[in-house]
Amino acid sequence: MITPRSWLPTPVLSLLLLGVWLLLARSYAPGQIVLGGILAIIIPLVTYQFWDTTLRIKKPWVLLRFILRVLKDIVVANFEVACLVANPWRRLTPHFIEYPLMLEERFTITLLASTISLTPGTVSANLRLDGQSLLIHALNVDDEEELIRQIRERYERPLKEIYEC
Amino acid sequence: MSIFVEALISLMLITGGVFVFIGSLGMAHLRDFYMRLHGPTKATTLGIGCMLIASMGYFWSVDGHIDIQELLITLFLFITAPVSAHLLAKTGLHLRLKHTQKTQGKPIELRSEEVGDKPVPHPDKGHG
Fold it and tell me: What are the boundaries of the region Disordered (chain B) (predicted)?
């Protein structure tokens, strides 16, 4: 029996694909919508087996707030890092930090690592094989504990809330 | 196009240019591989963002309708930039690239003898 779940396993991804297709094609003609719709159904079906888990977004509003917060952080922190880099009298103290992970799913860990890399001043450098901690390189840190606490409160908890709870 | 819109677009372009420049400056001047990695991957997100906003604003004021295609560039940038940064850092660790002595914290990948106290030169120096 064909149920909506069997031919449309990931509705959110399909919608995203359709949106990206329409933007790429730069037209909203019916033909493009049909073509985009067909692609949006076929691509998830073909690639579905490669993903180990599909997670459901449990709290879209928290996700929206998370995205806005990350965007704001990118802007603010970019100014800070630009000042650090451009200042000729800078005294940078780079850090390698082991960040103990609270998240369990690989997808959410990927999201967290990407967020860490996108916000200036920190790059995620390595995920330990056991998935228990993430190695982070930070450009300038005075207090290691403070950074870990900040990442935990600002990014990891919302992600946990959105996907894993 | 009114002078106000023009000024706003110019401001965005200049801000974007400054951020991208500082990112490149970081890549050229910071002291080791891991620090240099920060410049191009981060300062550019905001720099490119500003330029794309300027581009959207310009075509909006010229064509009259807003074109959100630029958002796609931002989306792809946000997906690819962290992945490439992560892979570069991971490769750096794997090849045991030197890091400056000031670096706090010891990842198990890097042993103590890989610490250089002088600025670590770009690998391609002396070839050209």
Answer: 100-128
Q: Do A137 and B41 touch (CB under 8 A)?
A: no
* C-alpha–C-alpha distance, residues B81 and B24, integer Å: 15
- Which pair of tokens denotes residue B46? 């905001």
Residue A17 tokens read as 């694909």
Identify whether the C-beta of residue A56 lies closer than 8 Å to the C-beta of residue A159. no
Does A55 reside within a domain?
Answer: no
Contact assignment for A120 to B43 by CB distance below 8 Å = yes
The pLDDT of residue A4 is 60
Q: State whether the Cα torsion B40-B74-A69-A132 is positive or negative.
A: negative
pLDDT tens column, A45-99: 888 777 766 667 777 788 888 889 988 888 888 888 888 777 777 677 788 888 8
Which residues of chain A are within 8 Å of residue B48 when distances are taken between CB atoms?
A: none
Q: How many CA atoms lie within 13 A of B45 on its CB side?
A: 31
Q: Indicate whether B66 belongs to any domain.
A: yes
* Unique residue bearing structure tokens 């604003």: B57
Q: A134 and A68: one domain?
A: yes
Helix (H, G, I), strand (E, B) or coil at A100: strand
For residue A78, count other CB atoms closer than 10 A to its CB: 24
d(CA A98, CA B47): 29
Other C-beta atoms closer than 10 Å to the C-beta of B68 total 10
Record: contact A78-B34, CB cut-off 8 A: no
Residue ranges for chain B with pLDDT beneath 50: 126-128
Asked whether the beta carbons of residue A139 and residue B99 sit closer than 8 angstroms, the reply is no
For residue A74, the chain B residues in CB contact (below 8 A) are 45-46
Minimal Cα–Cα distance from B125 to chain A, Å?
22
Instruction: Name the residue type at position A56.
Output: R
Confirm whether the ipTM is greater than 0.95: no
